[in-house]
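Worked example 3 (structure in, sequence out).
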């Protein structure tokens, strides 16, 4: 503790919603933070002006907590609490379809746990997606994992995973890759650039089962012709640093020659061209995935195998959430093992947002007692009881938002907070009477027509077909796209509302950054920096500060610290609102 405040390390800090809620208690102060996104860093520093920039790190993987004698470095010795939400996309079919096996974000979960293990703070808060506990979030067993898993009592599951289709030279490819895997050799020199791969994959879709004229139509599009002409005329032979086999090199050169002929309007056999291109694409997919296996030291439990017309690998995996729980228990922390999904709407946030929040405290502090979890305002979990969009933004209705992100300060003049809404009074805390970030996206004519056609609660699917023409398959559009907000309802989960094109409840325009921030429970003195889209994204990515404050207060109670000026007393609605 320093200056009577608990010292906080904020990991994956984003724009600072989690730390803001903690600091509202006046019992916590951020000493160290980590965030890699440049615009979010600017916002964070704007709202944490006391933070020493030397202690505002970018890359958590580069942090070294102990010196060569395994003694904690000075800057980390007085850290009382670690907070943060490590991104975790897990392993799923989506990863396979995107030509990757492993989300790099997976390792960030382990980086968060590494900080806890080495610093050993009094307490921690881990916020994450509520699906973290699902089976899709998993780690593959690496060559370094087996001992730790045995110590934690975790039993991995075996999996057979397809990594690509077999090619004409499949046996030699398999032998080549197994040799590289066994020696731990990098495959990076055999992999073509991601942009080139993506363009060739798109070309394959247009070459397969198509006529020459259809293929030429695709290649004659201005951007395509410019791109492919450039690479076949000047870069083709240099796209590979190395070729794994002569026959593949021959196929690659032949593909380039035929592509050049098509661009010069010469005749070729489309079937032959398509077959060669498909062989190249499938080979690259397999090499890419085995490269990931090698880079991440993933253990294969048999050689690369053939099943039907597919390359497959045999690996073992274990659930991310099971690992997290076992790991923090082994480090000596009590945490909320049973009740960890929280809906922010139950805590006064005017938004349905369900997230997983782990609250951990050293066992010696709790002395066998369970940790405290935040006590909701709306205990019945009934939507009609929650604070509504009206409570969050109604008072801003007469303030015309700018479309210029540089013009982001508006004097609110005679517009007053909603005196009958404790939430609105809480959000209106800017003493200089300015509203920051009341900036909206500038809408095209078709978007404006959609705005005008929709009423409260309606979305894209309620539009007539003539207003859906810019979407290739509008049946797959989510219900949150072009949603007209309803003052009498809490909002859905706030993401990037610019991309979702959320519409103001009563005015035919997109909601502003400040309005989105209000729905996220950011108070008006919190200012966002960066380009317009980045600000919308920062807001959507954030932990609602109001939810964070409830969590912070429950953590204080678990640490035996008296909480004064509880947030529940500040924003508790009048009884008549609940009836």
């Amino acid at each position: 503790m320093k200056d009577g405040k608990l010292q906080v390390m904020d990991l994956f800090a984003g724009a600072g919603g989690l730390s803001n809620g903690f600091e509202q208690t006046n019992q916590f102060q951020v000493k160290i933070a980590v965030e890699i996104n440049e615009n979010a860093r600017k916002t964070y520093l704007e709202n944490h002006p006391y933070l020493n920039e030397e202690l505002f790190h970018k890359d958590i993987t580069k942090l070294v907590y102990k010196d060569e004698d395994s003694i904690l470095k000075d800057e980390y010795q007085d850290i009382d609490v670690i907070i943060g939400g490590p991104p975790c996309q897990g392993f799923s079919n989506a990863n396979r379809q995107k030509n990757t096996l492993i989300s790099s974000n997976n390792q960030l979960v382990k980086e968060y746990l590494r900080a806890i293990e080495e610093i050993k703070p009094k307490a921690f808060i881990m916020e994450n997606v509520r699906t973290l506990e699902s089976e899709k979030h998993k780690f593959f067993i690496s060559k370094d994992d087996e001992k730790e898993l045995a110590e934690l009592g975790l039993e991995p599951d075996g999996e057979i995973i397809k990594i690509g289709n077999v090619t004409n030279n499949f046996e030699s490819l398999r032998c080549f890759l197994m040799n590289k895997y066994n020696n731990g050799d990098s495959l990076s020199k055999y992999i073509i650039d991601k942009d080139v791969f993506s363009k060739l994959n798109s070309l394959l879709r247009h070459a397969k089962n198509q006529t020459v004229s259809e293929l030429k139509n695709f290649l004659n599009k201005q951007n395509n012709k410019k791109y492919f002409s450039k690479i076949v005329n000047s870069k083709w032979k240099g796209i590979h640093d190395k070729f794994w086999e002569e026959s593949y090199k021959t196929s690659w050169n032949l593909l380039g020659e035929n592509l050049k002929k098509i661009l010069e309007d010469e005749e070729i056999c489309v079937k032959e061209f398509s077959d060669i291109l498909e062989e190249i694409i499938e080979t690259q997919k397999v090499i890419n995935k085995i490269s990931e296996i090698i880079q991440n030291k993933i253990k294969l439990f048999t050689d690369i195998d053939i099943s039907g017309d597919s390359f497959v690998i045999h690996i073992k995996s274990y659930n991310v959430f099971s690992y997290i729980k076992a790991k923090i228990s082994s480090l000596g922390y009590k945490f909320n093992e049973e009740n960890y999904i929280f809906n922010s709407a139950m805590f006064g946030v005017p938004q349905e947002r369900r997230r997983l929040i782990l609250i951990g405290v050293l066992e010696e502090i709790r002395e066998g007692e369970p940790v405290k979890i935040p006590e909701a305002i709306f205990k019945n979990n009934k939507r009609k009881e929650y604070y509504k969009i009206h409570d969050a933004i109604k008072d801003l209705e007469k303030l015309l938002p700018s479309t210029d992100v540089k013009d982001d300060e508006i004097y609110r003049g005679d517009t007053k907070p909603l005196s009958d809404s404790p939430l609105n009074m809480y959000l209106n805390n800017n003493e200089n009477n300015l509203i920051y970030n009341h900036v909206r996206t500038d809408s095209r004519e078709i978007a404006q027509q959609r705005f005008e056609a929709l009423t409260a609660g309606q979305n894209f699917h309620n539009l007539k077909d003539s207003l859906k023409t810019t979407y290739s398959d509008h049946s797959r559009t989510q219900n949150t796209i072009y949603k007209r907000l309803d003052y009498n309802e809490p909002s859905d989960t706030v993401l990037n509302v610019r991309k979702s094109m959320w519409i103001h409840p009563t005015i035919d325009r997109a909601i502003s950054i400040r309005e989105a921030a209000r729905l996220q429970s950011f108070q008006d003195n919190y200012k966002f920096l960066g380009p317009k889209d980045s600000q919308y994204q920062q807001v959507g990515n954030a932990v609602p500060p109001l939810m964070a404050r409830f969590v912070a207060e429950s953590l204080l109670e678990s640490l035996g610290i008296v909480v004064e000026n509880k947030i529940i007393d500040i924003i508790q609605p009048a009884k008549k609102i609940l009836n």
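Notes: The mean pLDDT is 92. The domain at 385-542 is CATH 3.90.120.10 (DNA Methylase; Chain A, domain 2).
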